[in-house]
Each structure stands twice: as structure tokens, then as C-alpha cells.
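Predict the assembly for these three chains.
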Amino acid sequence: MKTLTKSIARLTFALSLGVATATLAGGIASAAEEPAAGGHAAAEGETPHYPMIKPTLESWSFAGVFGRFDTAQLQRGYQVYKEVCSNCHSMHLVSFRNLADEGGPHFSEEQVKTLAATFQVQDGPNDAGDMFERPGRPSDRFPSPFPNPQAAAAANNGKAPPDLSLMAKARAVERGFPWFILDFFTQYEEGGPDYIHGLLTGYTDPPAGVTVPPGGHYNPHFISGPSLAMPPPLSDGQVTYTDGTPETVDQYSRDVSAFLMWAAEPHLDARKRTGFQVILFLIVFAGLLYYTKKKIWANIAH
Amino acid sequence: MAQSAAVEPTRRDFLYIATGAVGAVGLAAVVWPFIDQMNPDASALALASTEVDIGSIQTGESVTVKWRGKPVVIRNRTAEEVSAAKDAPLSELKDPIARNGNLPADAPATDANRAATGKENWFVMVNVCTHLGCIPLGQQGEYSGWFCPCHGSVYDTAGRIRKGPAPENMAIPVYSFLSDTKIKIG
Amino acid sequence: MAGHSTYNPQNPLLKWFEARLPIGGLIHSSFIVFPNPRNLNYWWTFGGILAFMLVAQIATGVVLVMHYTPHASLAFNSVEGIMRDVNYGWLLRYLHANGASMFFIAVYIHIFRGLYYGSYKNPREVLWVLGMIIFLLMMATGFMGYVLPWGQMSFWGATVITNLFSAIPLVGEKIVIWLWGGFSVDNATLNRFFSLHYLLPFMIAGVVILHIWALHIPGSNNPTGVSVKDKQDTLPFHPYFTVKDAFGLVCFLILYCWFVFYLPNYMGHADNYIEANPLVTPAHIVPEWYFLPFYAILRSIPSKLGGVICMFGAIAVLFAVPWLDTSKVRSANFRPLYRQFFWIFVAVAIGLGYLGSAPPEGGYVIASRILTVYYFFHFLVILPLLGLFEKPLPLPASITESVLGKGAAAVTAGAPSAPQTK
């Protein structure tokens, strides 16, 4: 045990040394990087805000050890998705039946049947060999608004709107040192919804001197450039909530971000619940093993 | 370990047993996901029901559709087939249970319990031999019902096993008439 | 894997079996009574942890294959099918993906432990080389496994790494096309990577058996580096080291589960949740974290061939360590200078890892170059010279003496050090 403590002390020392080296190197780098970054920005159109404004950490019901999705929020988020996003964006990995899942929006079976039937789904071929449209069933995937990516691009100024099934896990803004180490302890894995929320609420007028390319919309929260092809999708009062939740862009974007996190990680509730049980079990088991080991090694110098 | 045996033997043994038991519980809990992953997944369980248009099936004709990966035969039976099935006494049947997903599990295998309720000419059945899963050929064999070419099981015109190695009548799936010309299986 | 066996079953059936296939005796002599130095610390539990991780990866991997489809147009969606629809699919996939990272965490600790305590020195050179072969196979397996989900990072990682071979003069292009089975990374590439990703773990298991065999010839090294002299220096493997390894393993599992259940994507890349697109490269291509030090070395050299040679050289030099280190003393505990250089080297390796993830520009490149030079300097200059100039501290006469202090050895003459049956 003594050697272990000693070794740990050494490791800590080594880590701090490594960190010091890295910080030093980073320091040198950032000093040397200034002109490079400037050049980069120049190529993107002289934007003082690019590299982007990093997303702020919002509070989510599904964050942390005991995090769970808020069913009401997911249902509202679904409403925003259905009424706004789904006009352009597909979500082809999610099925209607998933909307009834526990730990998800948890609509009733009947509600899901009704919801599904509001979409037209392509099926076939029928006996005559033709494809046909029919109302959706719970087992169907969400239909895409465009038949193929080319059609989607053609209808949207040449940029196909990305699929939203995994959007909340497919965007990550560089956290940087030391945050990426702290994130390990704080279990920060909400970078996706934070980013989506930041983007949806982040549209502003371009600052003086910034010209936005035609078809572009200035948004300093966008990850890969100063502007993006998607126009601001939300406006206050656009979606009518029935539960008295404020009908603001901020609230809409929170709800739809939470919904997209669920769409990307539908088993998050089960994962965190199982994780708590497993880790608790392992700690107890480790404790028992520790005392067993102590007993066995009692009277033996080592 | 003879040296440490003198010190509190019972407490020590309890500790060893507790540790071993907790380890065994943990191992058992880990095994379950590895077994359960082989069960049908959520998409398979949610498989759509099938709707079939039966308006064009003439008397004496059958249509086969795929449901849950299996052939389901829908037959518009002739009057002779219906009466042959009705006339067979229950005592002669190898399997006296209806095996009808729409009826209680102990319903007797009368023709009325095998055919569509109130439409005795319509007959819907999972066309899979209950012996080892082959697909019996229609309108063949001693009873002009179904005959399984694999091992010679003979079924009558209500899909009931009469001769051969198969133990049970062929299964009737859950289905319902949406209209006179449309049925929904599943 | 151990010479002498005291296994002598009483059960007639076991007796009958043992006479025909003495596997009971093999297990008994290798994992029950095998004499281990009594002073092994917790850094020595990582061998057992690695064996566990190999088994865990094979078990979860075999199960994932039951649901995975190795086809360029189906692979991505089949992985999402596992995540969404398969019973416990999310758990099995996260166990496997994070298991790869945990495997590498354990193997790096294991390697650094060997470097610190001189476990590669006479008579354990072959043991070390076998370990390096395992490390190489692990890297190949890890790389090919990361390609299978067929996300953006899978695709572009595969493209970049296979293109390394194009640096080979004359035949480079031909080799790359041969590796791809086409003119770019595509379905043929995915299928061969899948096949090899399934094969290599079993090859690793084979080399692991050789590794344990080679370990059991001289027995384990220990923190003093002093060889085992007599029975008092050792304890039987069971129960002393089985319970110690088990405790170490469960602590390691807590860390593993922390990732699996609470940060399952922490060590992955967001871009890999976007399906592979051969027409668009992600803005910032980074390999998995366990390749980052080598990736930093690759990028630090401003020549394609030179970079590739240096990267492979960085691995090759590890194979030569037993012959580069000229010191007769094994453990760094008794080598005051080497100990300091060891920790500098650890810092350099971590620094290279950090730089491998940084963008290849400005000061990062300069820092990478400095650390790359130092990496090779450590192995090619410091290790050979240090043995000639360094004055080691006095070594204990035996392991028992180091544990109990001088003159105490006689007191423990009756200590349970001899292999014994329960």
C-alpha cells in the first residue's frame, strides 16, 4: 500500500508535469497562432466572431448522474420538431413507435397511432407494381420531407438540410484545456443540445463590415463558418403550446434541443439508471474485496 | 494460511463467502444482456400488421402473403371443402385444439373454430407444418387439404393434422375483417 | 506454463482425465501455486486487467457482430439499429467502444510500468518483444474497429492511415490500392477491415498465451528488480495475487463504467455520428486518443516519407529497448538519474498526445518537433549512455530483505511463502 501511495504521488507529479509542458506548448502555440487564426478568419470573410462563440452551458433535466428526460418537455419538443423542423429536416433513424417509449416522450399508444397517421408514408409496390402513399403506422420511420439529398439541396439553395436523428451527438464544439479534463468529473455530455440551443437563439444582424454571402444567415454560434444556409427557423408565438409554457424562441429551442437529444440517445434514462446501480454494486464489491485482500495478506509483510 | 486461521475464523469465513456471493451475483447480472440481445429486437416486435385485399379471390382459390416472415394462406374454400371439414368427427382428430389466435387457448378444433367467424368459406392459416417448419402444399393429400412434402404430414381442408408426424393443427393467426373484401393480419 | 506441478487430484474421474490431458496441472501450476514475488505493487495488477479486457472485448464484439452489417450502405444504420432497437444494444456497443479505450489505458500503464521497473531486461527480453507484438496487433485492431461504424471519422481515418503506405517509394501507390481493393476507401475496404478486426483479437489471444508462457519461465519482475533468490521471496499466486488482482480489476471497472454509463462518447468523435461521405472531409481529423502521440510524431516531420518512417520508428524503437538500456540494474527505484528521465519521458509522451490533437499549425508544430526529437533521444541516447555513467543506489540483498529490513529475514522463516495447498 505504501508503494502504491508513493507511486500515485509520482503519477500525480508526472501528470502535472505533462500538463505544464502541454500548457507551455499551448502558450507558445497560441502566441504563434495569432496571425494564423487571423488568416483563417480572413479566408472566411473577415469575421471577428469566427472562430465561433462557444455555446453556454444550459441546465438540462437529463444532465448528471440522476439526469432524466422531462416527458412534458420532450412532447413540446416533438411539437416544435413536427411543426417547424420536419418541413425541411428528415429524422430517418427514429420510428413513430419510439414516441411511446418510456424514458422518451411517452405518448400513449393511441396518441402515437394518431400522430403517425398525420404523416404520409410511401409503401409498395402494390399488386400492380406501383408505389403508393398511405398514412403512417407506429412501426414506420419518420418519412423524409424530400425524396433524396439532391432534391433537398435543390429546394434549399443548394444545401441539403442535415438529418436530425443524431444531430445532438454529431456536433461538438472543442472544449479545450482544462475543460476537457473537468468534463470527465462533471460528466458533461450535453455539448450537443447546448450547441443546438445556442445556434437556434444565436441569429443576429452581422456586425459592421461583415458581408454575408447570398443565401447565408449570420450566426456567430454556427460551428463551421460565420453564416449558415438555414434562415432563423423560430419566432415567438410560432408554435402553440397547450400546457401554458411560454411561447418564446428561447423556450422552443430548449424544448427541441432536449427532443433531439432524446432522438439521438433514446436510452439515456435507462443508461443512467443502470449505471448508478452498476457503479454502486462495484463500489460495494470493491470494498468487500479490499477487506478480503487485507485479511488474506494480514501478517504478511509486502 | 494456517497462520491466520487462529484469528476470528467465523468473521473471516463470512467475509469470504460474502465476497464470493456478491461476485457471483455480479457475474450473473452481466450474463443477462448477452443472452437478451438475441431476442427479437424492438423493430421486429413492432412489425407492421399486413392488410390484404381479398375481393379478387374466387371460390377455390388461395392467396399467400408474408407475415412475420412466414407464409399466411388465405383461402376461399369450396362448399365441398367446408362440408368435408365440418363432417370430420372431433374424435378422429389427432389434435383436438383449435390453435386459433383469435379464440381461447382451449377452444375445440371444430371447423367453425378454424374458419373465419360467420364466413365459413374464408380460411386464414399460417402455412407452416407443425412438425419441423416446412411449407405444406395446398389441396393435396388424402384429405385434399394440405400435404407436407418433407415428412409426409397430412392436413385436412381446415388445416388440421390427420396423419403423419406433425403434432398439432396448423396455427390460425390473429386477424380481422376490415370490410367484406379486406382483412388485416396481425 | 510453469515447470513443476504439485497437482494431484483425488477424484477418480479427474485422475483419469489428468492422466490423458494434464490441463488441471497446467492451470494449477500456472495460476494457483505459481510463486510470485511477495512485494508486487498494484501496478502489477494491470496484466490481469488486460487479460480481462481482451476477454471482454471479444465477448462484446462477438455479440455485436450478430447485429452489425459490414456494408458501406448499411453499416452506419446497423450500428444505429444496435443503439436503438437491439435489447441492451446500447450497453453492448458502449462497452465495446469504451472497452477499446480502457484496453489502451491499461496497456500504456502496463508498458510504462515495465519501463520504470526494467521488466524488459535479461532474462525477459522475449517477454517484452511479445508484449510489443501484442501492442502492435492491438493498434491494428483498434484502428480497423473504428472504421466499422462507417461514420465520417471512420472513413477519413481509414483514408488517412492507409495513405501512409503511399509514402513507400515506387510501390506505395500500388500497395494503397491493394489495401483498399479499389481507388478509394469503399465497401471492399470496409469488408476486409471487418474480417481482420474479427481475426486479430484471436491472434492477440494466441500471443498473450506465449507472453504468459515467457513470463512464467523467469517469473515476474518486482519493484526492487532483484531476482527471486529463495522460497521466502515469493507467495503462491492463489489466494494472494488472485484477490489482489481482483481488487485492482474492480477498481478499474468502476472507471470503465463511469465512461460507459455517464460519458460514453467522451473518448469518441462527434463527427462519427455523421454517416461517411466520401465528398466531404471533416474540418479537424484526429485519430483515436491512443494513437495521438504517434500521430503527433507523424505530423511533426515536414516530409511524407520521413514522417511515416519516424512514426513507425517510434514503435520500432520500443522493440529494441532491452538492448538499448545498458544498465544492469532493473528497477528505477535504485537508478536516481533514470528515474528522473523516466518521468520526463512520461511527460513528453503525454505532451505528444496533447499535440497530436492540436491543429497542425504555428507553435504546436514546433513543440511537436522538439518532443519528437526528445522521444528518440530518450531511447537512442539517454538509455544507452545512462547505464554507463549512472551510479545506482545500493540494492537490497533479496526481496525479503527489502520488505522486512536487514536481518529480519530469519524471523519470517516460517512465513507462508512456500506454495501450499489449501
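Chain B has four helices and ten strands. Chain B touches chain C at residues 1-3, 23, 32-34, 36-39, 41-44 (CB under 8 Å).
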